[in-house]
Write a structure and sequence with these properties.
Strand order of the largest sheet: 1-2
Number of domains: 2
Distance between the termini: 80 Å
Order of helices and strands: EHEHEE
Strand content: 5-15%
Radius of gyration: 19 Å
Structural class: alpha+beta
Number of strands: 4
Helix content: 25-40%
Shape: elongated
Number of helices: 2
Largest sheet: 2 strands, parallel
Length: about 100
C-alpha cells in the first residue's frame, strides 16, 4: 500500500522556510526541507532585506503586515531571528541644466 506523500521543500531561503512554516501550521509534521549550504551562517541560506509594509496594492500591504507578525515570533536559542531595523527612503531628482 502506498502511503500519503511527504512534502519536500527545496531550499531553506525565505520562501522555503515560509512555506515549511505554513505547511506545518496546517497540520503536517512530516515536512522535509533540503538545503545545499550551511544554515544560520554568513554565506549560508539567508535572504536579508527589508519588508516593505507600504504598497499601492492593499493585498501586498496586508501580506507584508502578516509577514512581519509571523517573522516577529521566530527565535533560535531563545533569541529573536527577525530584526526590525527600519529604513529610510530618500527621493532625489536630477537638477535641470540651465
Amino acid at each position: 500500500m502506498v502511503g500519503r506523500p511527504r512534502p519536500v521543500i527545496h531550499g531553506a531561503g525565505i520562501v522555503g522556510c515560509a512555506l515549511a512554516d505554513e505547511v506545518t501550521e496546517r497540520g503536517r509534521a512530516d515536512v522535509t526541507v533540503v538545503e545545499q549550504g550551511p544554515l544560520h551562517a554568513t554565506g549560508g541560506s539567508h535572504a536579508p532585506g527589508p519588508v516593505f509594509r507600504i504598497d499601492p496594492s492593499k493585498a501586498m500591504t496586508e501580506f507584508a503586515a502578516y509577514t512581519v507578525r509571523e517573522y516577529g515570533g521566530l527565535t533560535l536559542g531563545g533569541r529573536p531571528r527577525f530584526d526590525r531595523v527600519g529604513g529610510l527612503d530618500v527621493a532625489t531628482s536630477r537638477r535641470a541644466e540651465a
